[in-house]
Amino acid sequence: MIISARGLRKDFTVHRKVGRFRRERTVVSAVDGVDLTVERGEMVGYIGPNGAGKSTTLKMLTGVLSPSGGEVQVCGLEPVAKRTTLAKRIGVVFGQRSQLWWDLPLGESFSLLRHIYRVPETDHTARLKQCTELLALDEFIHTPVRQLSLGQRMRGELTAALLHGPEVLFLDEPTIGLDVLSKQAVRTFLSELDTRGDTTVVLTTHDLADIEKLCRRLVVIDHGKVVHDGTVDELHSRYRSRRTIVADLELPWPDGLTLPGAVVTAVEAEGRRVTLTLDGTAAGEVVAALAKAVPLRDLSVQEPDIEDVIARLYRDDN
Ligand SMILES: Nc1ncnc2c1ncn2[C@@H]1O[C@H](COP(=O)(O)OP(=O)(O)OP(=O)(O)O)[C@@H](O)[C@H]1O
Ligand SMILES: [Mg+2]
Question: Helix, strand, or coil here: 10?
């Protein structure tokens, strides 16, 4: 495994003003005993509500913050103690912070990074070419970073994080604030990276479409604790999310009619629209039975909504 954390903790002491003169010390357990193992080549979505402890975890994994407790290794190294060695083997993008030089054209930041990381020229050129193509950097590679739009800068940040060929990439909200096209560019880029399979990726996001499109594995954290670790499908089955069929009918729905494999969950529009929730039976079978019972005008099958499931998970944990 390339990342392993056992009982990882981070406590912050915060001082709160109480009344005019007194200050009270309280301890916030931002990360409260996280166990996490990631295998080489995995792409893991690390999600959770605001303040759950995601960024704090990533900071401990990348050696920016030292843990208050527990054990952690990335690429077989202890992140804080071996921070400089580790830096050569990982790439980091924190949405809020930049690793680029504000006053320099984007391309010059890349050259500087090549020297800092001592990347052989041929490797650098090949990687930069690949990023330039996939992320369409051409349009703004000569623009000073301070003049880049958020989406352009984010594409630059991703490139900067990858130029030294890291084994693990940590991304904290890489699609935050991006328009649909930039989001797509970033997602396509990451899924390309995933297909090649040699880079391990841990990413946090509030955009669940990122997760659905990119991550087979989902780790959900809330109040500093892992509340789910598994696939999106496992999450659906844990919450018994069901597919539904919404059918518009030529004739009103016959009162009390039941169909095997589905439960009637709503009858609307004067009986002309019925919603059926499937119990796991294939939609085709239920639709066939439905069409036999009542003539159909129109029909749609809806997949369970990942947002609903995640919202339930966040609520349940409170
Ligand atoms: N430097 C700090 N000092 C004190 N408390 C902190 C510090 N950094 C984070 N916290 C607290 O730790 C908790 C977890 O914060 P963290 O930034 O890890 O959350 P997050 O999951 O990344 O949230 P978001 O989705 O909003 O980015 C929060 O309660 C936050 O207020
Ligand atoms: Mg955060």
Answer: strand
